[in-house]
Write a structure and sequence with these properties.
The protein has 256 residues and is of the alpha+beta class. The protein has helices at residues 16-29, 62-65, 79-84, 106-117, 127-140, 186-198, 236-255, and strands spanning 3-4, 40-43, 49-54, 89-94, 99-104, 145-148, 159-163, 169-176, 204-209, 231-234. It folds into two domains: 1-79, no CATH class; 87-256, Trna Endonuclease, Chain: A, domain 1, CATH 3.40.1350. It contains seven helices and ten strands. The strands form two sheets. A seven-stranded mixed sheet has the order 4-5-6-7-8-9-10. Helix 4 crosses helix 7.
């Protein structure tokens, strides 16, 4: 997959995390340009963004056809695959628990746009990408410290989202990227209670899945006393609604 770019002579090198953050701000200020998938960008020392476009093989350039490469109205067949190759969040500094999330990319919005069109798209998202997508949603929802834990050795915590200050809250989220029909069992949910006990600062635990939970799990005698204030379950439909809601709210805010 070639990447086209307009080079800038003498341009200083900027880290990818800063570049992505700058590019997100560019699209926030220029919402009409969201018709394109600009996932990376060149940034001049003055801060001017010159986007790069990821162009699928076989798609002609704008110079040849005089139109946009990838349009939200007429995307190529492999458009979802392109999105899932992109970085969804900006990774900040490392902590003892994982990497801080400092923002989201344009692809984060575009993936949620796909979910809004077809909720089954959730099942196509790889487990790690799903964790990034949800971590980005916490950041967009106003949690000032969102940590994406490592792929292994996460101690049962995929995402840690914290709001400090008065009424501070610390949420532990376990993400289950399951296929349709693969339900989260009561035993899997009970395991989160052990995680909450080990993390003394945790206010609440969530189990988030693309699928569903075992029948009558809310009536489980070991789980019921903790729900919903200490333990919460989020199924695929609720996850899609939550993501779409956060994306819509903040896109409207950013474009005003």
């Amino acid at each position: 997959m070639p990447i086209e770019d307009e080079s800038i002579e003498g341009e200083s090198e900027i880290s990818s995390s800063i570049a992505t953050a700058r590019l997100v701000e560019y699209f926030r200020q220029n919402p009409g340009k969201m018709n394109y998938i600009h996932l990376f960008g060149s940034i001049s020392p003055s801060g001017e963004v010159r986007p790069q476009t990821i162009r699928p093989e076989g798609i002609p350039s704008e110079e040849n056809v005089g139109s946009s490469t990838i349009s939200k109205d007429d995307p190529p067949a492999n458009y979802p695959d392109i999105l899932l190759q992109a970085e969804l969040v900006n990774l900040g500094s490392s902590t003892s628990d994982g990497r801080l999330i400092t923002g989201v990319s344009v692809a984060w919005f575009e993936i949620i746009r796909q979910i809004a069109k077809d909720s089954n798209f959730l099942y196509q998202i790889p487990p790690r990408k799903l964790e990034e997508l949800i971590a980005g949603a916490y950041e967009r929802a106003g949690f000032t410290e969102v940590i994406l834990t490592p792929r292994s050795g996460d101690l049962g915590r995929d995402i840690i989202a914290t709001k400090p200050g008065f009424y501070s809250i610390r949420i532990i989220d376990q993400v289950k990227a399951y296929s349709p029909g693969h339900r989260v069992s009561a035993d899997e949910v009970r395991a989160l209670l052990g995680v909450l006990s080990a993390d003394q600062n945790a206010s609440k635990g969530l189990v988030t899945t693309t699928s569903e939970f075992a029948p009558k799990i809310s009536e489980d005698r070991l789980l019921k006393p903790f729900m919903p204030h200490r333990l919460e379950l989020k199924n695929g439909k609720q996850l899609a609604k939550w993501l779409i809601g956060i994306s819509a709210i903040h896109t409207k805010f950013d474009n005003n």
